[in-house]
């Protein structure tokens, strides 16, 4: 009886699949971590309830749902390279903008930037996965899909852990560096918020750098005009 692996690593023999998977890894590292950082800011600094912070993210989710079918049409016309590159540039810029959040940042600003960021995300996710699977022979497509989705979840887990660690370490380091002149006349809550904001800003900056790396790697994607390769009849 032939053994069938749950994850077939032979898919990484295809350079296009490997490249798009690596790009997706960096994208989702920043994406999932960033999706956690914003609710932390809203709930701990701005005093939002979990429900209210979820409603702030809702417009972005709606934009992603609306743009997903549109992105499919654009993918057929322009391919993965340029579509993903535009989306990643949008994600990078908006993530950098989140690295300057403070107590005075307006809710309107946060919603607009998050919605634009979600639109960029919609332009990245589907094209990268489709390009990865299109590069594989048809009989390897199922293995490719399983591997791609697994790596995406791994990237999200690593990204979340890494960015939360960066946030915590940065906040702790910043707190130790505060002098008496920095805290005079401020309440404990104000000081705690100031420290937390510094950590969140640093974590968003790291997430933006992850997106920059993905942007650079996207330049090396080669178009596969033939789509899925046909199964070769060996009989």
Automatic annotation (TrEMBL):
Keyword Isomerase annotated: no
PROSITE patterns xref list: MFS
UniProt topology in membrane: Multi-pass membrane protein
Residue intervals passing through the bilayer: 21-42, 54-75, 82-101, 107-133, 154-175, 195-221
Pfam families: MFS_1
GO MF, one annotated term: transmembrane transporter activity
Keywords noted in UniProt: Membrane, Transmembrane, Transmembrane helix, Transport
Coiled coil (residue ranges): none
Location of the Major facilitator superfamily (MFS) profile domain: 1-226
Location in the cell: Cell membrane
Record InterPro entries: MFS, MFS_dom, MFS_trans_sf
GO CC aspect terms: plasma membrane
Name assigned to this protein: Putative multidrug-efflux transporter
Species, as recorded: Listeria fleischmannii FSL S10-1203
